[in-house]
Request: fold
Amino acid sequence: MARFDNIEELEPDLRGAGLRIGIVMSRFNQDASEGLLSACAAALVKHGVREADTRIVTVPGALEVPLALQKLAQTGRFDALIALGAIVRGETYHFEIVANESAGGITSVQLDTGVPVANGILTTEDDDQALARMAQKGAECALVAIEMANLLKRIQ
Reply:
């Protein structure tokens, strides 16, 4: 087995002080989206991100989230971004299109701009599942954004 004595391991850094975070929230499935936002905002503040260093924009639905994220990333004012929303399965193939395209768009934004994006777009079978997951997922996205912003700063 290989031995790595001289490897520097970058430990997760969840200190949010001084970080600037942008959040894009879909207004579709508003109860779940607002629950995600509430949990996310609370976790950001808990970890030291100032409210004044957080910008929240809303868009009609999940398909519009990537474009708003891209525009925020291009400003150069944010250390990390967060995408929030809920896509609930319906009776048509539309669920798969929206889920896949929004996820692909979110991934493209972070790869194209170098700004990390925490994906908090829930994809659930029904409203109850979305409401059950919103608090945990919202808080997790805050932690992902903080950790990735700090990691990229250390790598640079």
The chain is about 50% helix and 20% strand. The chain has a mean pLDDT of 96. Residues 2 and 17 are 38 Å apart (CA to CA). The longest helix spans residues 127-155.
